[in-house]
Specification:
Length: about 260
């Protein structure tokens, strides 16, 4: 190999010649990473904000807001982050962000699908007719709204109260998972098929998912049941919902849930 005083152009030609010979002997290979590390301005010296252009998980879509999620130490910080997260918005304009409501130390967390018209107006989950139905269900198994925490898969209302789209659920899920982590409940009740399918990452029917507890992320127990809004027009679903919430209450007591 030439000494360090050799002309740079000549040195580069010799390096290229050496690589060609190595390729002929040992097959094709890449020197991109090693050459990049030896360049005068390595990637590590770039500003931190430039390092997230290609996140490992495709759900991030290169958006820096997702890198901020893990920095949130409490619900207030996460809520502030959600307020400025355009990725959480649907294609319905001027909606209000509905973060969640209830006891931040709850042992039971309820997760619905998306805010409706009333929720959008008030900025709170389950305050419309479905909310009244939910209150009746909770009272029947000796829970108050102040005992639990309630949120949704989406934090903004979709147009015409349609089901959340797969891409909307995907964009919203990392924020919800952090919310669950901060609350750290003993039990999770998924309200409705979309909620259960999103959390359990499955296309199974609600009939197959309900009636039993599922392992959620290796830490939580999750039960799925019908959405309270569905009970307003499908009376036949009230009985299985009652069976589900009785099962929920029984398990809650077994785990020592407070209150």
């Amino acid at each position: 190999m030439a000494n360090s005083s050799q002309n740079p152009s000549t040195l580069i030609e010799e390096v290229i010649s050496f690589i060609k010979k190595e390729r002929e002997l040992y097959g094709d290979f890449s020197m991109r990473d090693s050459l990049t590390r030896k360049s005068s301005k390595p990637e590590a010296e770039k500003p931190e904000s430039n390092k997230i252009s290609e996140p490992e998980d495709e759900v991030y879509d290169g958006n820096q807001i997702y890198r901020e999620i893990e920095k949130c130490q409490n619900l207030e910080e996460l809520k502030a982050l959600c307020e400025k997260a355009d990725v959480l918005k649907t294609d319905l304009k001027n909606t209000k962000m509905v973060f969640g409501d209830g006891n931040p130390n709850a042992d039971l967390m309820l997760i619905g699908e998306a805010p409706g018209a009333e929720e959008d107006k008030q900025g709170e989950p389950f305050v419309g007719s479905a909310g009244k139905m939910l209150n009746q269900i909770l009272e029947a198994i000796n829970f108050k709204r102040d005992d639990i925490y309630i949120s949704n898969i989406l934090k903004h209302r979709p147009p015409n109260n349609r089901d959340p789209l797969p891409e909307e659920r995907k964009r919203s899920l990392p924020f919800l998972l952090k919310q669950i982590e901060l609350i750290d409940p003993k039990l999770i009740l998924a309200l409705g098929k979309v909620s259960a399918q999103t959390l359990l990452d499955t296309n199974a029917s609600l009939t197959k998912m309900r009636g039993k507890f599922h392992n959620f992320r290796g830490k939580y127990e999750l039960l799925a049941t019908f959405h309270p809004a569905a009970l307003l027009y499908r009376r036949k679903w009230k009985r299985p919902t009652w069976e589900d919430v009785q099962l929920l209450r029984k398990r809650y007591d077994e785990l020592g849930g407070k209150p």
